[in-house]
C-alpha cells in the first residue's frame, strides 16, 4: 500500500514517483529535448545527446533508454575533464591570491575578456584530451598556435572554442548517422552561464542555442 511504501522509503504518501533510466536521460527530460533538439551538457564530462523512438545504433553514438517510455537516448562521444579544463585554466591565468573586484568573479573577468578576443583566438587552438584512457596512457591535450601576440583572453577563448568545435564535430557525426538535422541546441551545466560560451556554441553549430 501507499502507507507501507512510505514507511519503508521515507517518501511521503501520495508523492508521484517516476522510474527513469540514467542521469543523462533525466537531464535530457528536464531540458525538454525532443526529436528536433540536441542537448549539449557542459559538465566535468561534456556530452551531447538527443532522443528518438527507435533503437538506432551507429559508429558515432551509442544508445540508452530514455526517461520517456518507448523512447531512446542517442549520445555522442564527449570530452573528459571538459569543464574541469575551464576551471584549471582559470586558476592558472591569475596570480595566487588574486582577489577580483567586488561583485565580480574570475569567471566573469575571463568571459568578458574572451568576448572581446577575436574569433579564432588569434590562432591558438586547444586540443581537449587531458585525461588519457587506460589503454592509451600516453595521450595528452595541447595548446598550439602561440606567436607572442596573444593574451590570456585568447587562451581562455581558445578553450571555449575547442569545446564547441569538438562537440560540433561529434553532433554532426551523429546527425549524419541518424539522417537527421536538429533545429536547435539546448545547453545545460555550469558552462551555460557564460554568454560568450553560448554565443560560441550558436556560431559554431550554426543554429539557435538556449539555456
Features:
211 residues; alpha/beta; six-stranded mixed beta sheet; two-stranded antiparallel ribbon; 17% strand; globular
Strand content: 15-25%
Straight-line N-to-C gap: 40 Å
Question: SS-based structural class?
Answer: alpha/beta
Q: Compute the number of strand runs.
A: 8
Task: Provide the residue-averaged pLDDT.
Answer: 93
Q: SSE string, helix = H, strand = E?
A: HHEEEEHHEEHEHE
Structure write-up:
- By secondary structure, the protein is α/β, with parallel strands linked by helices.
- It contains 6 helices and 8 strands; from the N terminus they run ααββββααββαβαβ.
- Strands 3-4-2-1-7-8 form a 6-stranded mixed beta sheet, sandwiched between helices. Strands 5-6 form a two-stranded antiparallel ribbon.
- A hairpin with a 6-residue loop joins β3 and β4.
- α3 runs antiparallel to α5 and α5 packs across α6.
- It is globular and about 70 Å long.
- The chain starts with a helix and ends with a strand.
Concise summary:
The chain has 211 residues and is α/β, with parallel strands linked by helices.
Question: How is this fold's topology laid out?
Answer:
Blueprint: H1 2-9, H2 23-30, E1 37-42, E2 47-52, E3 61-65, E4 72-76, H3 82-92, H4 106-116, E5 125-127, E6 142-144, H5 152-178, E7 184-189, H6 195-205, E8 209-210
Parallel strand pairs: 1-7, 7-8
Antiparallel strand pairs: 1-2, 2-4, 3-4, 5-6
Amino acid at each position: 500500500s501507499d502507507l507501507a511504501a512510505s514507511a519503508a522509503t521515507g517518501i511521503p504518501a501520495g508523492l508521484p514517483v517516476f522510474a527513469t533510466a540514467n542521469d543523462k536521460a533525466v537531464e535530457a527530460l528536464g531540458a525538454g529535448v525532443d526529436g528536433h533538439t540536441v542537448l549539449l551538457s557542459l559538465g566535468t564530462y561534456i556530452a551531447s545527446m538527443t532522443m528518438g523512438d527507435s533503437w538506432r545504433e551507429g559508429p558515432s553514438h551509442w544508445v540508452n533508454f530514455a526517461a520517456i517510455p518507448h523512447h531512446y537516448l542517442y549520445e555522442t562521444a564527449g570530452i573528459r575533464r571538459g569543464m574541469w579544463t575551464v576551471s584549471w585554466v582559470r586558476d592558472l591565468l591569475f596570480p595566487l591570491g588574486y582577489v577580483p573586484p567586488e561583485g565580480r568573479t574570475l569567471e566573469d573577468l575571463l568571459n568578458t575578456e574572451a568576448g572581446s578576443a577575436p574569433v579564432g583566438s588569434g590562432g591558438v587552438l586547444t586540443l581537449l584530451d587531458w585525461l588519457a584512457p587506460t589503454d592509451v596512457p600516453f595521450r595528452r591535450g595541447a595548446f598550439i598556435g602561440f606567436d607572442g601576440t596573444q593574451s590570456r583572453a585568447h587562451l581562455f577563448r581558445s578553450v571555449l572554442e575547442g569545446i564547441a568545435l569538438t562537440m560540433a564535430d561529434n553532433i554532426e557525426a551523429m546527425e549524419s548517422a541518424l539522417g537527421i538535422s536538429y533545429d536547435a541546441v539546448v545547453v545545460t551545466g555550469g558552462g551555460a552561464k557564460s554568454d560568450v560560451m553560448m554565443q560560441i556554441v550558436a556560431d559554431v553549430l550554426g543554429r539557435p542555442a538556449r539555456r
